[in-house]
């Protein structure tokens, strides 16, 4: 059975697959099998946990900002804060609105509404440590030292870069950042998921933001060459429009949230034409989100991940069937460490586990002596993997003998005199 089995069996999914030619359906199923499906509860709990984790890591109060599209003119974003008209053009006033439609005649609100609500709840729970979209006045009054931008997904990185750019255009912000090592302001970006290219682009912003994510997102462009060619050819062949078949920015992100699908996903998933019905019409997941399961430790999912890592013996091991979920997670992480690179983000991308779960598995492996401090397998760790690749243990069954063996039922006084 393939990964995302319930999702693949949904009526909407089967109808969408029926549009492909029979010879192309296996590739379409493989594309869906690689998708990360994020439930509403998993999104809220894991992103909240990541934000609170970042709050505990640093000193001083922080300002949370929900990422959204910022107004721009000729491609240049407007300043995030107001500035005085005369030099030194000191920033003043309140912060940006958490949610603001990009166009007045198009009042639709996207994922920024969900993120903004989460930001508001965190600020109410931690009123002294966290501030909701603070402006220059609050930043100075409460000595806010960390500008934390929160988003659900970093695909191409364009929107995050524009938001950071809007803040960077403010002279006071650049001044605060320049003295960040003493009492100034540092930048961070917190996201549920990101593509490799999008994260690297955001990390390259002039403000050098620290990027933290719950999990890495699989994208077509980051797949092994042969698979990348097959799936990109599929997306190109059935592209319902004239735009990039891999979605905005040519990313090919394979993720779907309960609240929607990013525009960086392949166009065959959300685009439409007179000859093509999308799986996620207008990027809405209402028809299939009941089948989303954010569990990367079930047997079939781990087996698929192991096969992607070319660990066929581990994937077919009978040990996998009987192992508890935590042990399967440890096994997947150990297998991912068999080949470089061995960073937490790469392991997350290979295993589908969250960064937090990867860290827990690495801590267990370190504690048992399975890996070194550089996350390389030790001899003990390799022996554990070899044991998991082996056959199931053979147990000798007890004899099924229906004959009842003789045993005395009473004691008699022995003959002779005893001393």
Structure commentary:
The chain has 419 residues and is an alpha/beta fold. Helix 15 (325-336) crosses helix 16 and helix 15 packs across helix 17. It is 40% helix and 11% strand. The protein folds into 3 domains: 5-35 and 218-291, no CATH class; 40-216, Rossmann fold (3-Layer(aba) Sandwich); 299-389, Orthogonal Bundle (Arc Repressor Mutant, subunit A), CATH 1.10.10. Strands 7-2-8-9-10 form a 5-stranded parallel beta sheet, sandwiched between helices. It has a two-stranded parallel ribbon with strand order 1-11. 37% of the residues are buried. The protein contains 18 helices and 11 strands.
List keywords for this structure.
two-stranded parallel ribbon; five-stranded parallel beta sheet; Rossmann fold; 3 domains; 11% strand; 419 residues; 40% helix; Arc Repressor Mutant, subunit A; alpha/beta
Mean pLDDT: 89
Tally of domains = 3
Kindly provide the radius of gyration, computed on alpha-carbon positions and rounded to a whole number of angstroms: 28 Å
Give the DSSP E fraction (strand runs of 2 or more residues).
Answer: 5-15%
CATH class of the largest domain: Alpha Beta
């Amino acid at each position: 059975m393939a990964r995302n089995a319930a999702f693949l069996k949904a009526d909407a999914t089967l109808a969408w697959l029926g549009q492909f030619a029979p010879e192309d359906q296996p590739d379409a199923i493989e594309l869906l099998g690689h998708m990360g499906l994020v439930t509403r509860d998993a999104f809220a709990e894991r992103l909240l946990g990541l934000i609170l984790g970042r709050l505990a890591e640093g000193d001083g109060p922080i300002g949370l900002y929900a990422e959204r599209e910022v107004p721009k003119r000729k491609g240049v974003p407007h300043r995030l804060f107001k500035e005085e008209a005369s030099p030194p053009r000191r920033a003043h006033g309140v912060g940006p609105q958490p949610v603001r439609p990009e166009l007045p005649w198009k009042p639709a609100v996207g994922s920024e509404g969900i993120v903004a609500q989460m930001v508001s709840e965190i600020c109410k729970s931690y009123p002294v440590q966290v501030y909701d979209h603070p402006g220059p006045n609050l930043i100075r009054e409460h000595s806010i030292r960390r500008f934390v931008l929160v988003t659900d997904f970093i695909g191409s990185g364009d929107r995050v870069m524009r938001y950071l750019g809007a803040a960077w255009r403010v002279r006071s912000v650049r001044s605060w950042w320049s003295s960040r090592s003493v009492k100034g302001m540092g930048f961070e970006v917190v996201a549920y998921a990101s593509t490799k290219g999008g994260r690297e682009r955001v990390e390259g912003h002039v403000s050098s933001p620290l990027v933290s994510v719950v999990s890495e997102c699989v994208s077509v462009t980051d797949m092994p060459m042969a698979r990348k060619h097959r799936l990109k050819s599929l997306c190109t062949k059935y592209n319902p429009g004239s735009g990039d078949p891999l979605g905005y920015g040519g990313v090919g992100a394979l993720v779907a949230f309960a609240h929607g699908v990013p525009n960086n996903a392949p166009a065959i998933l959300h685009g439409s034409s007179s000859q093509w019905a999308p799986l996620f019409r207008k990027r809405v997941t209402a028809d299939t989100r009941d089948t989303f399961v954010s569990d990367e430790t079930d047997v079939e999912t781990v087996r698929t991940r192991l096969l992607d890592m070319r660990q066929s013996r581990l994937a077919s091991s009978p040990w996998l069937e009987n192992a508890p979920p935590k042990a399967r997670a440890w096994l997947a992480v150990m297998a991912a460490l068999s080949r470089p690179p061995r960073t937490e983000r790469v392991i997350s991308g290979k295993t589908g586990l969250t960064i937090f779960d990867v860290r827990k598995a690495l801590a267990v492996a370190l504690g048992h002596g399975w890996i070194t401090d550089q996350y390389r397998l030790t001899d003990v760790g390799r022996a554990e993997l070899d044991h998991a690749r082996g056959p199931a243990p053979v147990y000798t069954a007890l004899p099924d003998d229906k004959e009842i063996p003789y045993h005395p039922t009473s004691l008699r006084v022995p003959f002779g005199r005893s001393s």
